TrEMBL record:
Name of the protein in its database record: Glutathione S-transferase
Organism superkingdom: Bacteria
Alphabetical UniProt keywords: Transferase
InterPro entries cross-referenced by the UniProt entry: Glutathione-S-Trfase_C_sf (IPR036282), Glutathione_S-Trfase_N (IPR004045), Thioredoxin-like_sf (IPR036249)
Length: 287
């Protein structure tokens, strides 16, 4: 049996992103359960899992319910020691755990002023000094991790839970155009280009209506991550393929890209592909 994983809105729920990356980025099978934030959907769904009613929450194949992302990371690492959730060598593993723990408990000013919103990017958000202080702290601990581990790319060698925990922070820097060092910005760009993150954002762009809580009046700019291919949704069911590349079911919805038409089994499959076609290897195999 797979794990059960409960998440909130993909565009906005930073903790849900962490929980999902712990499964998707490390190849651990799961069954997804999703509900909207700021509605009765999420607490109603979570009644089946845990009284804390927070996302992410998982249920293990043997029935253990866990609602905390850091605990989820440790438990998955124990149950799947070959998945690479934490670095193998003791020193980078210890540093990765320090980083994840600080992210789990800190950076409250950054979280408050810049809630995660993957649907747009602003030119400026007038960050107060407390947010600037959080950004300096980020640069300090990231530089420390790179210097201690000698990692040229991710924080502690190969992509690990430490990077999972900072993925929403990278998205905040991208969304609010926050000032960080060139070295930190290279790390942000790596996060935005990570295959699992790109898929999560593509789904978040088309996953339900905007949440008013996250609306800000700052001027906007283009998303600073990878530029999507110019796909668009079109009417009809005529397409090059007769079956959805994801499910294998018959085509009901179609997109157009480079003058070619490709079909999918539902609007969500089509629209997540329109949002970022290159995020989906099964579609790119068709293209």
């Amino acid at each position: 049996m797979p794990y059960d994983l409960v998440i909130g809105d993909r565009a906005y729920s930073s903790w849900s992103l962490r929980g999902w990356l712990l499964f998707d980025a490390f190849g651990i099978p799961y069954k997804l359960h999703k509900a909207r934030l700021y509605t009765d959907e999420l607490p109603t769904l979570l009644k089946q899992f845990h009284p804390a009613r927070t996302a992410p929450t998982i249920r293990t194949p043997d029935g253990v319910v866990m609602p905390e992302s850091l605990a989820i990371a440790e438990e998955l690492a124990s149950r799947h020691p070959d998945a690479g959730i934490w670095p193998t060598d003791p020193k980078p593993r210890a540093i990765a755990r320090v980083l994840a723990a600080e992210m789990h408990a800190g950076f409250t000013a950054l979280r408050s002023h810049c809630p995660m919103n993957l649907r747009l990017s602003y030119t400026d958000c007038n960050p107060p000094q407390a947010v600037l202080d959080d950004l300096k702290r980020l640069e300090t601990i990231w530089d420390w991790a790179w210097d201690q581990t000698g990692s040229p790319h991710w924080l502690c060698g190969e992509y690990s839970a430490a990077d999972v925990f900072f993925a929403p922070v990278a998205s905040r820097i991208a969304t609010y155009n926050l000032p960080v060092s060139p070295r930190a910005m290279q790390y942000v760009q790596a996060q935005l280009a990570h295959p699992s993150f790109r898929q999560w954002r593509a789904m978040g762009l088309v996953d339900g209506a905007d949440q008013d809580f996250y609306r800000r009046d700052y001027p906007t700019r283009s998303w600073p991550g990878p530029t999507p291919l110019p796909a668009r949704a079109v009417d009809g069911t005529a397409s090059e393929n007769s079956a959805c590349p994801y499910s294998g079911k018959p085509v009901t919805h179609v997109l157009e890209l480079r003058g070619r038409r490709f079909g999918f089994c539902n609007a969500f499959c089509r629209d997540k592909t329109v949002a970022d076609a290159e995020a989906w290897p099964k579609f790119m195999a068709l293209l």
